Amino acid sequence: MTRSTRARRQTSTPSLARFFTKQMLMFVALALLIVMVDFFLYTLIAYRESNEHYNDDSPATAVRAVDAALSRGEDGAWTLSEDGEQALDERGAWALLVDESGAVAWSQRVPDEVPRSFSPNDVAMAAHYAEIADYPAFFWDRDDGLLVVGFPKGEYWHESLTYPASTIANLPLYVLLVFAVDLGILFVLYAVARRRTQSAVGPIVDALDALSEGRAAELNLKGDLREIGQRITETSGIIEQKDAARANWIRGVSHDIRTPLSMILGYADAIAADEGASDDVRADAQVIRAQGLKIKDLVTDLNTASKLDYDMQPLDLERVHLPRLLRSVVVEHVNSGLDELHPLELDLDENALDAVVLADERLIGRAVENAIANARLHNERGCRVQVTLAVRGERALVRVADDGAGTSAEELAELKARLARARTARSAAGSYGEEHGLGLVLVDRIVRAHGGSISIESEPERGFSVELSLPLA
């Protein structure tokens, strides 16, 4: 398990509560939205139905219109005015008047199947069910009888319901219960849908994380996301091919350069040591040798970065005695005799004389050498370079500091940003910078591969320092 994977899992633990809180808030918001939409729809439908059926077109309106339009003359004849006729015609309705004896005293457009006389029992049953001979009927009490207005079959629906008082009293509770059950079902459906979505998207996110960390990704998805999985797998394969091609190219170039470079360094050494050569020639040979060593260091850095990037060379971990390693690095630089402008010092704290780390000795030595080379490279007029070793808690601190020109706050911030970008880049070689080159990027890669970290500090005209923090064995 990589450190980034462990970090993501640790971060996911506290975020779990936030996730469920967010889901609950989203669910509550969704439920409130549904209630508001339902209320709006109910209001809209009620308003529409009221305008269409319960205003001027309501049965009660028709009954009142017929009641007002029906009158009896002095000769005993019944008369329905034009308003009453119009009210019946517009609705396809009929009307009749039942007198106290139950006989039909007056009628208008009454269907044949409607009786012409009614007993008290017939009137009671018709009023209870609001229909006569399957015709919806509405009743209006008059001083001279009972007015009945009937409408076409199927025009209105009437239901007479009787409930215990306790049922009506508990009705709000029942409504709340049904509402709660509906919310529960909705939440379960919402949670299942979210879980299915996350389970489908989760492998894609993991694959993208793997690609961002330079690891291969292969997805075998089914369903609608299968094509996305195939595209990610194909992309991973293309990236792997390009990485392999880049690594092979670096390895091939390094191999091709090694032999001619060794010959150049050999001849330069011979000329520089030839007492018969002129001083100018010997000085030029020294310059050639110094620049050749820089090329050699760069090739070595490229090879090391490539191997770290693509896991081509696993770390050869062993117990490394840091004081001995640092002495070896410093002595090698001093004995090279190439750089009198950059005197090198080694300072070991008393509590660090026995400091041991579990590391690849060659790589850690390379990191320290690069930090020293960085100090020499950016102080061409010379500076003093000091290598110190201290122990703080469970960490060994290797510090390479110079008293040279230093760098501005803006340049330091840019360098830190470049290192941060390099940590997420697929290739350290692709993080090569103009000012500090591959050196510090490689130092950071090597130290982090050992579970450590680096920090850099600098001020203008007050030098530059690189501190390597490594866990003690």
Structural class of the helix and strand makeup?
A: alpha+beta
Shape: rod-shaped
The share of residues in extended strands comes to 15-25%
Q: Architecture of the domain at 315-471, CATH level 2?
A: 2-Layer Sandwich
Reading off the top of the CATH hierarchy, the class of the domain at 315-471 is best stated as: Alpha Beta
Quick one: CATH superfamily of the domain at 315-471? Histidine kinase-like ATPase, C-terminal domain
Percent helix, as a range, is 55-70%
Which sequence of strands runs across the widest sheet? 4-3-7-6-5
Total number of helical segments? 11
- Provide the succession of SSEs: HHEEHEEHEEEHHHEHEEHEEHHEE
Query: Terminal Cα separation, in Å?
Result: 20 Å
Please state the average pLDDT score.
83
Beta strands, count: 14
Uncertain ranges: 1-14, 429-436
Please tell me how large the radius of gyration is. 48 Å
> Mind summarizing the main beta sheet?
5 strands, antiparallel
Briefly note the CATH topology name of the domain at 315-471.
Answer: Heat Shock Protein 90
Tell me what you see in this structure.
Among the domains are: 59-150, no CATH class; 315-471, 2-Layer Sandwich (Heat Shock Protein 90). The chain is an alpha+beta fold. It is rod-shaped, with a radius of gyration of 48 Å. Strands 4-3-7-6-5 form a five-stranded antiparallel β-sheet, with helices on both faces. The chain has a five-stranded mixed β-sheet with strand order 9-11-12-14-13. Strands 1-2 form a two-stranded antiparallel sheet. It has eleven helices and 14 strands.
